Amino acid sequence: IDVSPRSLSIDAVLSCEATETVTVSNNGDRPLNVSSVSIVNDPVITCGTFSRSWGGSTTLAPGASMSIVVTFRATTECFDYVDLDSDWNTMHIYSNDPTDPDFVVELNGLATCLF
Question: What single DSSP character describes residue 6?
């Protein structure tokens, strides 16, 4: 499994929501079954939440790829005059990859919208 980017920073500057795309590729010589994708939102330090959109369980032939759309939506004001407050979370990509069956992508969200 090859995932790009390996960490994702979504900046919703002057807005309350933004999206980015993560690409999952099969760099092996056998079919790659991506069985699920889940997001864990940090329950303690949060200024927003992440969600994902994808087509469900997919089998990728060698050399094939798929996209996962990740959305960051602000839930509180996240602007600080001295430094911008960020939100750290993770996305787990589960597959039949023998080396990395639970590939973790770190998610960072930043929003400067006013509530």
Answer: S
